[in-house]
Amino acid sequence: MKILIVEDDLEILRTVLKYFDAFGYVLERAKNYKDGLIKINEHTYDCVILDLNLPDGDGIDLLAKIKEKNKSTGVIILSANSSLETKVAGLEIGADDYLTKPFHLSELNARIKSVVRRNMYEGDNRVAFNEIIIDTAAQEVTVNDKTLRLTKKEYELLLYLLINKNRVLTKQSISEHIWGDFIDRSDSYDFIYSHLKNLRKKILEKGGNDYIQTIYGIGYKFSEREIE
Fold first, then answer.
1. Each residue of 176-186: pLDDT tens digit?
2. DSSP-derived pairing of the beta strands 74-79 and 47-51
3. At residue 136, what are phi and psi to the nearest 5 degrees?
4. Strand, helix or coil at 24?
5. For the chain, which terminus, N or C, has the lower number of CB atoms within 10 Å?
């Protein structure tokens, strides 16, 4: 799961980043409106945690830009302002949830999972493609009812492919979503090929089909293979 937190309070920022790092999420941060705008224009996220009171801009305006770029991106507002008017304004523009400071990290985590499940998985914990089933709540994968043991990155890679089935995904978009935007500095995407190779092998060993298609010069697509 790829999450952006837009927050100018460095203590809150550090606390949230440390907490969610333990769950294996890909976390990116922006300390103000300007940084947040750059991030959402250059990358896509499963969820954005957004503080409304930013030092250089209006969080409500940034919310509108996030939803304009990608309606499926979940947005959870964090704010010390608990007024009904502010909550209504945020929700009407497209926020998926609203959490008032101070808050419990476990509650924020639960709300993130709920928002992502609703927006990306159509409210279901299960993502399925023929014989391959992913239980996103338990983070378990089965192929032909047999448990598929994957590394954390292999699991995230398979989930990303299934969510975007029948779409061509560039190597850059895959690397950014799974490994974060720091991967931009990488000179090669060979590590993606290595992970996909291992993923293919494990699926085939459980009697599954190879749905991972290489689109040469571009990236990969997860779909049924056309009969030649």
1. 877 776 555 45
2. parallel
3. -70, -25
4. coil
5. C
The enclosing domain of 212 has a CATH number of 1.10.10.10
Dist. CA 58–CA 86, nearest whole Å = 12
Q: How far is CA 75 from CA 1, 104, 139, 218, in A?
A: 14, 17, 22, 30
CA angle 37, 50, 36 (to 5 degrees): 15
Report pLDDT for 228: 45
Of the residues 88, 105, 120, the one at which a domain ends: 120
- What is the tens place of the pLDDT at every residue in 69-95? 888 889 999 888 767 777 788 888 888
For 152, residues 6+ apart whose C-beta sits below 8 A from its C-beta are: 24
**Residue 47: CATH number of its domain:** 3.40.50.2300
Per the structure block, which two tokens stand in for 175?
Answer: 């690397």
My answer on whether omega of the bond before 55 falls inside 30° of 0, hence cis, is no
Using the predicted structure, report yes or no on whether residue 227 has a pLDDT greater than 50. Answer: no
How long a stretch of residues is the chain? 228
Q: Which residue has the higher pLDDT, 9 or 182?
A: 9
Domain count, the chain: 2
What pLDDT does 140 receive? 92
Which residues, 6 or more positions from 94, have their beta carbon under 8 angstroms from its beta carbon? 63, 64, 66, 67, 71, 75
